[in-house]
Design goal:
Elements lengths: L2 H15 L1 H10 L16 H14 L4 H19 L12
Length: 93
């Protein structure tokens, strides 16, 4: 998984639940990756799933609920960073 997705996930948690909550979630994770996630890097999918699983538990929601909230947050961020993927289209299909 590309680091940008990890960074967006971290930003989502921080903006909506606070930096302390992000630190608490990361501290509870057993990540394969030991260094900070950077946008251009590629990291194991298992690390992202570990963060999402711990976040859903700590935030008292299902994984599905967390993914839905993260998706609503993520799409506009990706669209603003990579407008060439969305601007030439009139419809999501």
């Amino acid at each position: 998984m590309k680091g940008i997705i990890f960074n967006i996930t971290e930003n989502y948690i921080t903006e909506n639940y606070g930096e302390d909550k992000l630190d608490e979630i990361i501290a509870d994770c057993s990540l394969i990756t030991k260094e900070p996630f950077v946008g251009p890097g590629t990291y194991p999918d298992d690390d992202l799933m570990e963060i999402i699983t711990k976040a859903s538990l700590k935030l008292e929601m299902t994984i599905e609920q967390f993914f839905k909230k993260l998706g609503h947050y993520t799409f506009p961020v990706l669209a603003s960073r990579f407008p060439n993927f969305v601007t030439p289209y009139n419809h999501p299909k």
